[in-house]
Amino acid sequence: MSTQTIKLLIAGALLLHGLGHGGAIAALLYVAYRPDADSGDWTAARSWLFPSLAPATARIVASAFWIVSLVGFVAAAMSFWGVLVPGEMWRQIAVVSSAVSLTGIVLFAGNWPTFNTLAASAMNVAVLVTQLWTHWPAQTMFGK
Q1: DSSP readout, 71-102?
Q2: Residue 101, CA distances (Å) to 7, 95, 113 in order
């Protein structure tokens, strides 16, 4: 696989994961404003750790996690591609975004479909492992 293909796949995965948080925000709003509509396995935001949060407050808190994650992963993808912040800054942006996303997933566990929760968690863990322990991909891989 060429380095250009690997670079495209990494940037694409970061971007797609970021945009996926936008889907979570949309689901929160859909469930909140159309409570009688069929939303599949998507439910209103409710934190198991803070069960006394009012529904509107829980939605705002969950939305804050997803907005920060969305912006962060999009910024990480753009930085990885060299569009936003050149160099290695994308790593720190991706790590912080993963930590925020994973924290939101844990705090609001059980609110979203299992597949979405597992896929998002796996991506967050993959980013954390590759950036905190292996530092993959190396800058030299792309001729920098």
Answers
A1: HHHHHHHHHHTTSSS-TTHHHHHHHHHHHHHH
A2: 23, 10, 16
Residue pair 121/102 in contact (Cβ under 8 Å)? The answer is: yes
> Would you state the pLDDT for residue 50?
95
Whole-number Å distance between alpha carbons of 66 and 21 = 5
Beta-carbon contacts of residue 91 (< 8 Å; ≥ 6 apart): 131, 135
Q: Which of 22-36, 55-69, 78-92 has the highest mean pLDDT?
A: 55-69
Q: Give the chain's length.
A: 144
pTM above 0.85, yes or no: yes
Report yes or no: 108 and 55 within 8 Å, Cβ to Cβ: no
Q: What is the pLDDT of residues 22-60, one digit of tens each?
A: 999 999 999 999 988 888 888 889 999 999 999 999 999
- Per-residue burial over 3-24, b = 16 or more CB atoms within 10 Å of its CB, e = otherwise: eeeebeebbebbbebbebbeeb
